[in-house]
Write a structure and sequence with these properties.
Length: 589
Amino acid sequence: MMEFIAQNMAPIMFASLIIFLLIGYPVAFSLAANGLMFFFIGVLLSPYSGGSINLAWPLLHALPDNFYGSRVMSNDTLLAIPFFTFMGIVLERSGMAEDLLDTIGQLFGPIRGGLAYAVIFVGALLAATTGVVAASVIAMGLISLPIMLRYGYDRRVAAGVIAASGTLAQIIPPSLVLIVLADQLGRSVGDMYAGALIPGLVLTGLYMSYILIMSFIRPNSMPALPLEARKLGHGVMSLLVALAVTSAVSYAAYRYLAPAHGDNADILGATAGVLFIYIVAIADKGLNFNMMSRLAQQVIIVLIPPLALIFLVLGTIFLGIATPTEGGAMGSVGALIMAAAKGRLSLDVVKQALTSTTRLSSFVLFILIGARVFSLTFYGVNGHIWVEHLLTSLPGGEVGFLIGVNMLVFFLAFFLDFFELAFIIVPLLAPAADKLGIDLIWFGVLLGVNMQTSFMHPPFGFALFYLRSVAARVPYLDRLTGKQIAPVTTGQIYWGAVPFVCIQVIMIGLTITFPQMVMHYKGTVVDPGTIDYKVPEAPSLSPLGTQPGGTAPAAPAAPDLSQPPSFGDAPPAQPAAPQPDLSQPPSFN
């Protein structure tokens, strides 16, 4: 019996962790408690394990290094989490979401499902600026849900759209979960952001496609805004003209900057065009030139600041100007400037943002510390080898592995938060994926899309809880129409989320089928067989024994053998001294 337990310590340890979590014990303490408890058990059972347990008491000395080393306390990658959290909370308090929803709702209002399109569009913008699901769902639930109910939207459609668009912050950069996944997979956050960008946009398009289909199938579930509610009036043509002018200015700036700035000229040209039309819109509104319609003015003035913030964060990261941590710091400063410009910045707002940021950062840090304790023991009982053998032996090879892993994550997402999944499951899956030759950035984006469903799963989806906290529970009187509005039930919120969970599952399949959506982060792949090697021509060298003109050198003159040989630059020979006459006595004069 002891031998059986010792040789199967890894699955027993993993099952024990699942039981702890299902009981409701806090995740960080479940991880740490399991790690320490099975460490003691493993040391005692080590002699019975046949070499499968590699634990000893001195191994506990490695824990302080794990805590204070590059994996936790000195991890520069995780430093981006508090920056992006602070930025998202400040933007939530700045009223940016309210202005965006009101303006984009007016833009899409004349068509069926216009408010739903506006919610999805604004959800994508908030995802690209805040990266925090809770902030997006709560803001849109407070602002857009009463408006959608006022104008006769089906409650399930309204609740599902708000919850789903809020979860776009999970996959669209600068998502917090992408930062954690990059850290756990040992990959660059910038590469993870670049890989997740297109899947996030495709998922946004799928949400809008669902609304388009539903607007034809059930047109009464999402009516257009009535004429009296369109307070900005008409002016789409004016907006299109402004867009054309922006494109022309951007192209002209690009042509002017291309010789000096090369590949960055397109981004700099687009920045110049957007800045130009923004200045024109502010001047037109402030000086009453009336060149633009009110709708065009409002859309430009409201939409460009968050786009500028997106460029400040993501643009600098993708261009290689800033690291994700530096991009988050710049985004936090930009959020403070935007809040101050709207008159919403106060000491109370900063205190609330700092409190929430500290709470979330501490939550992540404690889970990571608990995960380090758990992994120390789990690796000591060869748990990583057990998981790797279990996953790589799945039928179907790489495809079978991906399907099995995604089914596992989808099931665990019913019970675990995305942070918990990232810190517990991903470190176990990554070695097996790497051994199968799967690109870990692609694998991480795939898991990110899958973990997004953890916010939408009834009955434990956090996005559903966030929406439930701000949705009306009892009938209330609408402040504009004076009509009594029925409350939104929990069942309506849950049923509204189901179609969007199915869309997310479809997105998982698309990401597996079309990996190039993610793999574009590597840039253009060059086939070595198509490379033409050209060696530059060197100055012609004369063959041995010839002069540069190709003629043979003149034959040297025959040596004079009557003279001694000359060795280079020897000094000239001196005349010989006269021989003395020995027949005469020497002269001493």
